[in-house]
């Protein structure tokens, strides 16, 4: 099982503004969010059994923190800040990729989710989705 723990800095990002657009974020807020999220600082802590996670993401305008166990439902917010219930699971037996489905607590909106995957060369690949729009962000350890 790979170790996701560490401090991560973003190496590349694709389709973040398109993801926000698919979520219905207005153009002015999208521009602010894209600029603010250009260099997020991410801290991940994974406990000894590898199933419990703490993920903290900091940008100049917002800091989010989530704690969860793989296979157990938890509350968090979608990338545009709407409260949701989430369930993370391992996609493969090697536990290299964690996939999370999100369900809005109120209202309607696109189907959202995220995945985090450790690549063979030690990069962390975050994929966020809103219906068919996919945003991919690649991180390297600091």
Would you kindly provide a written description of the structure presented here, covering whatever features stand out?
The chain is mostly beta strands and 142 residues long. The protein has 2 helices and 10 strands, in the order βααβββββββββ. The protein has helices at residues 16-22, 27-36; strands at 6-14, 41-46, 52-58, 63-69, 74-77, 83-90, 97-104, 112-118, 124-130, 133-141. A 10-stranded antiparallel sheet has the order 4-3-2-1-10-9-8-7-6-5. Strand 3 and strand 4 form a beta hairpin. Helix 1 (16-22) packs antiparallel against helix 2. The two termini are 20 Å apart.
Entry summary:
This protein is 12% helix and 51% strand. By secondary structure, the chain is mainly beta.
Task: Give a quick set of tags describing it.
142 residues; mainly beta; 2 helices; 10 strands
**Spatial ordering of strands, largest sheet:** 4-3-2-1-10-9-8-7-6-5
Distance between the termini: 20 Å
What would the principal axes of the Cα set say about the shape? Answer: globular
Counted beta strands: 10
Helix and strand element order: EHHEEEEEEEEE
Q: How much of the polypeptide forms β-strand, as a percent range?
A: over 45%
- Quaternary structure state of the chains depicted: single chain
Task: Give the biggest beta sheet.
Answer: 10 strands, antiparallel
Low-confidence sequence ranges:
none
């Amino acid at each position: 099982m790979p170790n996701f723990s560490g401090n991560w800095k973003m190496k590349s990002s694709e389709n973040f503004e398109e993801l926000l657009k698919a979520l219905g974020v207005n153009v002015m807020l999208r521009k602010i969010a894209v600029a603010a999220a250009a260099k997020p600082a991410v801290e991940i802590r994974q406990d000894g059994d590898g199933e419990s996670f703490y993920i903290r993401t900091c940008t100049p305008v917002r800091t989010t923190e989530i704690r969860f166990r793989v296979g157990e439902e938890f509350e968090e917010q979608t990338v545009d800040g709407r409260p949701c219930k989430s369930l993370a699971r391992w996609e493969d037996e090697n536990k290299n990729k964690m996939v999370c489905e999100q369900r809005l607590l109120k209202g309607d909106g696109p189907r959202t989710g995220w995945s985090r995957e450790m690549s063979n060369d030690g990069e962390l690949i975050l994929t966020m989705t809103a219906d068919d729009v996919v945003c991919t962000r690649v991180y390297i350890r600091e």
